Amino acid sequence: QVQLVESGGGLVEPGGSLRLSCAASGGTLNLYAIGWFRQAPGKEREGLSCISARDHSRYYAESVKGRFTISIDSAKDMVYLQMNSLKYEDTAVYYCVAEFDHRILNVRRMCETKSRLDDFVSFGQGTQVTVSS
User: Fold this and answer.
1) Phi-psi region of 63 (alpha: psi -120 to 50; beta: other; left: phi over 0)
2) d(CA 129, CA 46)
3) pLDDT for residue 27
4) 87-106: b (≥16 Cβ within 10 Å) or e
5) CA 100 to chain centre
6) H-helix or E-strand spanning residue 71
7) Contacts of 92 (CB under 8 A, 6+ apart)
8) DSSP output for 79-102
9) Measured between alpha carbons, how far is 121 from 24 in angstroms, rounded to an integer?
10) What is the secondary structure of 104-124 as a DSSP string?
11) How far apart are CA 23 and CA 5, in angstroms?
12) Residue-level pLDDT at 114
């Protein structure tokens, strides 16, 4: 099954931008839906954006809609999360997760699930994003 590795996190000032990358290996990306979730200390894990590698349908949580953009490069087996207009409250560990596309109802349901990360087919080790002045 697919393995995922995130990169691109770091320290950024409020209003700044970062692009997170999720490298997939060991599987055929088109079989999966990929999501970006985040976990901040003391807060519930939040599904931010999910995309189907099969039909490229996308979902964004209200907290990031208009600021974050998810994209997929199937030729490179990469999924990206472009994050603009970052806010202090975006500080968290960001995880890339994968689920078989045929197992999800739609990408919105995948993102809104309260499942644990290890309930998904695969998830990465996480990358820290810190928004601070």
Assistant:
1) alpha
2) 14
3) 83
4) eeebbbbbbbbbbebeebee
5) 15
6) strand 68-73
7) 38, 39, 40, 43, 46, 128, 129
8) EEEEE-S--GGG-EEEEEEEEEGG
9) 12
10) -S-HHHHHH----GGGSSEE-
11) 5
12) 78
Q: Are 59 and 80 in contact (CB under 8 A)?
A: no
**46: its two tokens:** 């939040």
Structure token pair of residue 7: 């990169």
Grouping H, G, I as helix, E, B as strand and the rest as coil, residue 29 is: helix
Question: Which residues contact residue 124 at a Cβ distance below 8 angstroms, ignoring those fewer than 6 apart?
Answer: 4, 5, 6, 22, 95, 96, 97
pLDDT (tens, 9 = 90+) of the chain, 133 residues, equals 899 999 999 999 999 999 999 999 998 889 999 999 999 999 999 999 999 999 999 999 999 999 999 999 999 999 999 999 999 999 999 999 999 999 998 999 999 987 889 889 999 999 999 999 9
Residues 50/111, Cβ–Cβ less than 8 Å: yes
